[in-house]
TrEMBL record:
Keyword Transmembrane: yes
Membrane topology, from the record: Multi-pass membrane protein
Source organism (scientific name): Nonomuraea deserti
TM regions (residue ranges): 34-51, 57-78, 90-108, 114-130, 137-155, 186-206, 237-259, 265-282, 312-333
Subcellular location per the Swiss-Prot or TrEMBL entry: Cell membrane
One Gene Ontology MF term: branched-chain amino acid transmembrane transporter activity
Protein known as: Branched-chain amino acid ABC transporter permease
Amino acid sequence: MSNPTETNAAQARTAAPPPPPAPPPAEWWRSARWRWGAAALLAAAACYAPFQLVPFHVFQLTMVLIYAVALLGLNLLVGHAGQISLGHGAFFAVGAYTAAILLEHWALPYPLTLPVAAGAAFLLGLAFGVPAMRLRGLYLALVTLAIAIFLVPLLKRFEDLTGGSMGLTLAKPAPPAWSGLAEDQWLYFLTLAVAVAAFLLCAGLLRSRVGRALHAIRDNEGAAEVMGVRLSVHKTLAFAWSAMFAGTAGCVYTWVIGFVSPDSFTVNLSITLLAGLVVGGLGSLSGPVLGGLFVMFVPGLAQDINDAAPGVIFGLLIIAVMYVAPTGLAGLAGRLIRKIPRKE
């Protein structure tokens, strides 16, 4: 017969440690209040802006949203899964050309081109993700770079389908009469709706078990595999999801521009997208938005500063930003916000 004192001691040793204390209610409420307040202000500004800006500036904001959706997918792959891609512009082009071909040759309604373009990019990303899951680092970067390199001549080869070097010219979605919106405003709100849906989908994905698995792979692949994470499945799906967001952005790009050509999707696009994501901030939901602003405005600024060598100016601007904000503009903004004194 065991001693009750020894039994209680053994149970105390084997008992699970107590859970960590919950954050104080005041601290949680203050954080939530700041988060929801910032989201409300951002939503109000996004809806108010197209009615106060000239059409060209509305077009620029529309392009920022398109690039933000494309960078959202790249951020999922690079910032959250720890992989690398220099061919993201190719998946962007797949979505753009899928929508253009469906509109030009099959006269498909605009809303139906979006899921088809996203699905085509998803399947292509899945196909390239299977062999790429065994690679990492420089070798993976070279494979993805090859995708961007051979896509342009491939698009030029099938002239009957893609329009060859001349590309395809398409009609833009016309605003309905009941909306009372101009064409630029209508395209902006369409893009805004797609961007909001994409960000909500990505946020939900990252909060799920899949998101936790991607973070585990990024931090330590060996430890993640020991914990039961299937590396091959999640790496492949990360490529596919990343391509899906890029294809979605490419489809909306076709709606807004009304024209696609192979020269719009060269390797420079892929490199610019990756640079924009790094400057915006890896691993954060605000990073793609800041990266979209960078991709839209900084190349033009570099062209204005020195028309003879815009690439040099562009590179120097990237170096300057990374020197000031090594974790990206999103990380810099977070540090500045944390330094703001708050009332207790």
